[in-house]
Each structure stands twice: as C-alpha cells, then as structure tokens.
Specification:
The complex is a heterodimer of chains A (90) and B (246). By secondary structure, chain A is of the alpha+beta class. Chain A contains 2 helices and 3 strands, in the order E-E-H-E-H. Chain A has a single domain, classed as Roll (Ubiquitin-like (UB roll)), CATH 3.10.20.520. In chain A, strand 1 and strand 2 form a beta hairpin. The longest helix of chain A is centred in the middle third of the chain and has 12 residues. Chain B contains 10 helices and no strands. Chain B has a single domain, classed as Ferritin, core subunit, four-helix bundle (Ferritin, Up-down Bundle), CATH 1.20.1260. The chains are: A alpha+beta (90), B mainly alpha (246).
Chain lengths: 90, 246
C-alpha cells in the first residue's frame, strides 16, 4: 500500500493544514480513510490527500543555506504596521 | 406499525453488531477504523429506531430493553444481516447489499407521513450515502482485482444472494402502512435495488447463483442459528447483571 499525506481545512476561509498520514491502495481509498480517521470529531469540512512520494521537500542538511540568511532581516516582517483589532487570522 | 419499525431497527442493530465484531481484526488499521466507524453510524440508527419502536409499543419498555432483553424469536431482522462476517469479501458484499437498500429506503422514508420516522430517515440518509460510496468502491476493487479477490467475492455472492429477497417481502400489514404513506413500498424498493446491483454485476465477471432458493422467516422471528449465538455475546452483560450501568 502507498502512503498518503492528509490535509484538512477546518472551516472555509482557512487554509488546508497537514494533520497526518495513512496507508491506502489508491487515492479514493485514501480520501475515504482520511474521512474516517481524521474527521470523526468535526475537525474539518474539506480534505486533500497527497501521495507522499509526490512531495518534494527541502533537505535538513540545507537548513543553514536555505533559512539562516533570513535571520538578520527583521525589516521583512510587517511588524511596523498597526493592525486593527477587528482583523483576525493574520 | 410496531412490526415495521422493529424490522428496520433490528436490521440496523444486528448489522451494526456484526460490523463491530471486526474491531481489532480489520485487514489493516485504516480499514479497521472505517468498519467500526460504519458500525457506530448504524448502531446510532438502531438506537433512534428502537426508541421509536419502544414509544409505539407503549408498555414502558425502553430501547435498551428491546436490544438486550429480547430472545432470538423476538427479533424481526432479515437473516442476511445476522450471517457471519466470513472473509472481508463476505462482509463488504453484505454491506453493499444493505447500503444500496438503506439509501433507497431512507430516501423514500424521508417523506414518510410519520414525522418521527421521516426525521430518522433524513438523518440516516447522509450516513448511508457515505457507506454506499465506500462499499461500492470496495466492490469495484474486489471484482476487478486479483483471481483470489474475484473468487472470494463470487463465493460471497453464492452464499448471500438468497438472503437478499427477504428485504422486499410483502405482507398485508405492510401494504396498509404503504397506503397510509408511512412505509416504503417493497416492490418499488426491489426494482431500484435490483437495478443498482445488477448494473454493477453486469460490469463484472460475477454471476448470480441459479438455485432459486429464497431465504425467509426472519421477519417472523425464525432465524438462522447464528443469531442466537450472537445475542448470547451481545446480551450477556445485561442478562448476567440486570440493570447494570457504567
């Protein structure tokens, strides 16, 4: 059986979030198993399943080259704006 | 009316209990959870239907009394649902037969003139629609899978086909209920069920067994030996420790 990664969207407006993985023989079975494993307690209203082998990921050994250069560039954060307290999910 | 609700309730109670027996024995973890999830849905339907049955009975018995204190002869389920789980092909074929039946049944009962029954049907329809989607895909996988999966499915079909006729048995009592708009017409159900199942079968190499024998008796309490054995296990706690709660 193949491994699939499962993504759930809790409610509309939010993005799909990785919640775990599971085994299935095909994508339809993965989708149904995801429904049965990950949405039993109303955790989501939309499911994505992705064949794990299709995910291209960064290599942990590249961590420094990829992510360290951003450390001293604090001006890239939009933290100098005042955000209205009515605005959520930022 | 009581007999009709009792039949619907017992079909779900016994099927739910059978599926629950897969708990911890599923072919793989994900399927184990899916089977028992389905079982819980169906037991939920049984609870609603038994509550309604108890209300109609009106002698103070509760849904729990009906589930745990009746003997085999008091059960009105079709013999199909009490059949042993067998292998996975058996379980899923029985499930597919019942899912097709339940989808058509609840679709009709959603418009029942009995308000309580209509509400139960409307809620249950969402659940069985998913169950059918699941069992349908399994039927495709097994019927177009390996020689072994096809053989096992054919064996299951040979054994279970004769038990399906009972789902559409007619009676005078049922005719009255259909006339009052309470119950689903068994002839109508049979036409739709057969159309769906035969359409699927036509897409496979499977063949319907030709013996012509039809199981009957479940609706009158005459069951196969399997029901009694199953009830021994299901009812043990309430029988051994009456009114026990935890």
């Amino acid at each position: 059986m193949k491994l699939y990664e499962i993504f759930l969207r809790a409610k509309s407006g939010l993005s799909h979030k990785h919640v775990g993985s599971l085994h299935a023989t095909d994508s339809q079975m993965a989708l149904q198993n995801a429904r049965d494993l990950y949405t039993r307690r109303e955790e989501g209203e939309s499911i994505w399943v992705v064949d794990s082998s299709q995910i291209v990921s960064s290599n942990p050994s590249d961590k420094d080259a990829y992510f360290a250069p951003a450390e001293d560039k604090i001006y890239r954060h939009p933290s100098f704006y005042e955000i209205d307290k009515e605005v959520k999910n930022i | 009316m009581y007999n009709y609700i009792q039949n619907l309730a017992d079909n779900t109670l016994i099927l739910g209990q059978r599926l629950a027996q897969w708990c911890g024995h599923g072919p793989f973890l994900e399927e184990d959870l899916a089977l028992t999830n389905t079982s819980l849905d169906i037991l939920g339907q049984a609870q609603m239907l038994l509550n309604l049955a108890a209300e109609i009975k009106g002698d103070g018995s509760t849904a729990d009394d009906l589930a745990f204190l009746r003997d085999a002869i008091g059960f009105k389920n079709v013999i199909l649902v009490e059949q042993p789980n067998g292998d996975f092909a058996h379980t899923m074929l029985r499930q597919y037969f019942m899912d097709v039946y339940h989808v058509h049944l609840y679709t009709i009962l959603s418009g029942s003139s009995n308000q309580s029954l209509a509400e139960i049907a409307e809620k249950s329809l969402k659940e069985v629609t998913y169950h059918l989607e699941r069992s349908q895909l399994w039927m495709q996988r097994l019927a177009h899978g390996t020689k072994e999966s096809i053989d096992r499915l054919q064996n299951a079909l040979n054994e279970l086909w004769h038990y399906t006729h009972e789902l559409f048995e007619e009676s005078e009592e049922l005719d009255d209920l259909v006339e009052q708009g309470i119950a689903a017409d068994p002839i109508h159900l049979k036409i739709h069920w057969e159309a769906d199942v035969k359409e699927w079968l036509a897409s496979t190499a499977l063949t319907i067994p030709k013996t012509g024998w039809k199981a009957t008796g479940g609706l009158n309490g005459h069951h196969s030996e399997y029901l009694g054995l199953m009830l021994c296990e299901m009812q043990f706690l309430q029988r051994a420790y009456p009114d026990c709660e935890w």
